[in-house]
Amino acid sequence: MTLFDDKTIRRANRKQQFDDNFTRAMQKAFMEELKGFLKRKSRRLLPFEEVKDKLEIWFAEDLGIQNVPIDSIVGSEGRYRAFTRSFLPLQEDLRDRWKKIDQVRESRQDLPPVELYKVSNAYFVKDGHHRISVARVKGNKYIEARVYEYQCDVPLDKETDLEKLVIQENYHRFLKETSLNKNRPGYNLQMTRLGGYSILMEHIQTHKYYLEKKEKKDVTFPDAAASWFDRIYSPLAEIIRNNRIMKQFPHRTETDFYIWVFKYRRKLRKDVPDNDNPDDDNPADAVEAYAKKYDSIFRKIIGASRRFFGLVKY
Questions:
Q1: Residues whose CB is less than 8 angstroms from the CB of residue 108 and which lie 6 or more positions away in sequence, other chains included
Q2: Is the per-residue pLDDT at 311 higher than 50?
Q3: Nearest C-alpha neighbor of 125 from the set 79, 159, 172, 187
Q4: 284-306 burial by CB neighbour count: b if 16+ within 10 A, else e?
Q5: Most exposed: 52, 53, 167, 294, by fewest CB within 10 Å?
Q6: Which residues are 49's β-sheet partners?
């Protein structure tokens, strides 16, 4: 006579399986955190309230039920410390709820849609963290969700983390001051490094000064920004686009190179002491010189190594 029948044993095995599934998920979470630490890249979810405050987004529109790519979910309204960026569980007190969701999915019962906030191309969890976590562990690419969209003037995507969010905050404030998103819609002035937008603001302020001096009248900052964009930024950006330099640095943007080329032009001026007129130099020459400087195999290897070890974030 057996102490337990087959049905009892199978039930116990299934219960242990769900427990083991959660344990393995937590082990993967530890490895993800360790990998992020070694590469100096945070693997934590973004706090939605911080995103709202930094980007000044306030009003949401109900988009209804949609199938959302799980890897586009980058943050949480309230539980951003409980899961990794891949929605692996980080806390032991998630075990019971996580196992129940796993069990419901295993029995093929229907689960209600999760609720998400959408900001640009990124999503944040309002409700359904455990459902997303289990679905991700099970290998699902999409999840059914009710989506509420916030309008935002800067791009967010699945690569956005806390450091990039700070850059986007500066981009938002730059657009707010210059109104370029309204006066020159459709153009992307995205940057990948902190401090760049303050340099652009200095360029616009300088352009404003010379514009007022030439026209002998006051010029608003948004009007000066539009003039700077048309007369200074766009011609140089077109030269950068037509040069091979962008292919060498796919993780950078035109606006990054705009600033770096301006800095490099200053260096060229210092290297040519007989040139009394700084306006005589050709920006195309500066772009070409910059491209040649960073075209060597040695520099490419160094750059790839820096990106691999997380010394270059974007």
A1: none
A2: no
A3: 79
A4: bebbeebbeeeeeeeeeeebeee
A5: 53
A6: none
Q: What digits encode the pLDDT tens for the residues 255-274?
A: 998 888 877 766 655 544 44
**How far is residue 23's CA from residue 10's CA, in Å, rounded to a whole number?**
20
Residues 267 and 274: their CA atoms lie apart, in Å, by: 14
Give me the phi and psi of 25, to 5 degrees please: -65, -40
Domain ranges of the chain: 6-150, 162-308
Q: Check residue 5 and give left, alpha or beta (phi > 0: left; psi -120 to 50: alpha).
A: beta
Residue written as token pair 């040695």 = 298
What pTM, to 2 d.p., does this model score? 0.81
pLDDT score of 310 more than 80: no
Class of domain 6-150: alpha beta
Of 167, 71, 169, 153, nearest to 119 by C-alpha is: 153
